[in-house]
Design goal:
Number of domains: 2
Number of strands: 15
CATH class of the largest domain: Alpha Beta
CATH superfamily of the largest domain: Dihydrodipicolinate Reductase, domain 2
Strand content: 25-35%
Distance between the termini: 47 Å
Strand order of the largest sheet: 14-13-12-11-7-10-9-8-15
Number of helices: 9
Order of helices and strands: EHEHEHEHEHEHEHEEEEEEEHHE
């Protein structure tokens, strides 16, 4: 079925150009959205990518927001203070797709998300995504159907192999990019865990610099205590070169069973799942595989929402803010070396 595509303008071309090339102009975004403009405060960068994409160039986000032909903004700038720009966009009557991490201020994040709801505007991001990804929906189903009960513990791992040099971006600033591997990669699994483990209570951090030339860490672990007593350990690193990056490994323990995602060497499936539980005193094992994974931009969901459809399973503003609370406390823990309340 052919749909009438919606025009979108992209702000922030350091990261936004990758999203544009791979998603908006790719098979997932292009059926729904037409790239109409790019915006970056570095004029040469805006001009270069505007020419490459064959679209308008803006150097000032306010001027892009004022463009009456563009109803949707892709906002791919640093997270610090992002909420104020989202507020300006939604108050102008436009909708937003942005990226993880959403903000570093959980109160501002919650305020702007609630305001978007009041205004009838859409604000989506890739992690946490507005709708449950297939493997996350499977976990939710298993929790209910297998009677897994209360969450007890979780171990999550995500890694890649980077050898980065300082470039003057927010990636170099510990205040804007605290515990960098967790902030940049671990946020995906934080979003996944919060969906099932609830409200966080306290965090503790261990971080190091192994290969990076940036002043920020490239190897880190975050421990999270939840208010229900559950404990999560999240490892994220830019140092592991096993050609199996971004697997988002997950082991979740519940009172009556365990769930696993992508544990062990990668298979052909994007997400390989299993659950172990007890039924009538007998151990049971179920398995499932899925293409796609959590953390992807859901362009079809954004299109439907912008067109006025009320989405099922929508991620609540409070759940998004819970992840941001963890990030803020994580920075405090990085500085203090102590357990910090969320």
């Amino acid at each position: 079925m052919t749909v009438e595509r919606i025009k979108i303008g992209v702000v922030g071309l350091h990261f936004g150009r990758h999203v544009t090339e791979e998603d908006i102009l790719g098979e997932k975004g292009s059926p729904y959205f037409e790239l109409a403009a790019v915006c970056d405060r570095i004029h040469e960068k805006a001009d270069e990518w505007a020419e490459r994409f064959g679209v308008k160039a803006y150097y000032d986000i306010d001027k892009l927001i004022a463009d009456p032909e563009i109803p949707v903004i892709g906002l791919f700038i640093g997270p610090v203070g992002r909420a104020k720009w989202i507020r300006k966009i939604i108050r102008s009557g436009k909708d937003v797709m942005t990226t993880k991490p959403f903000e570093l201020d959980p109160e501002m994040a919650l305020e702007v998300l609630r305001e978007a709801e009041e205004l009838g505007r859409t604000v989506h991001l890739n992690s946490p995504s507005p709708l449950l990804a297939p493997e996350m929906r499977q976990i939710s189903t298993w929790i209910a159907e297998c009677g897994l009960g209360q969450p007890v513990a979780c171990r999550a791992d995500v890694w890649a192999s980077y050898r980065e040099e300082p470039d003057g971006t927010w990636y170099d600033d510990p205040d804007q990019c605290p515990v960098a591997p967790i902030f940049r990669l671990g946020i995906y699994v934080i979003s996944d865990i919060v969906r099932f483990f609830g409200e966080p209570e306290a965090v503790q951090v261990t971080a190091s610099r192994v290969f990076t030339k940036r002043p920020t860490a490239d190897n880190a672990q975050l421990n999270v205590l939840f208010k229900n007593g559950a404990i999560a350990s999240i490892f994220a690193s830019f140092c592991v070169g096993d050609q199996e990056p971004y697997k988002n490994v997950l082991s979740m323990n519940f009172e009556n069973g365990s769930v696993y995602r992508n544990v062990g060497p990668r298979t052909e499936a994007d997400s390989e799942m299993s659950v172990v539980y007890v039924e009538n005193g007998e151990k049971k094992v179920e398995r499932a595989q899925f293409d796609g994974h959590s953390g992807e931009y859901q362009w079809d969901a954004l299109y439907r929402a912008v067109k006025g459809e009320k989405l099922e399973e929508r991620m609540a503003p409070e759940e998004i803010a819970a992840g941001v609370k963890i990030l803020r406390a994580m920075r405090k823990a990085e500085l203090s070396g102590k357990l910090e309340k969320v």
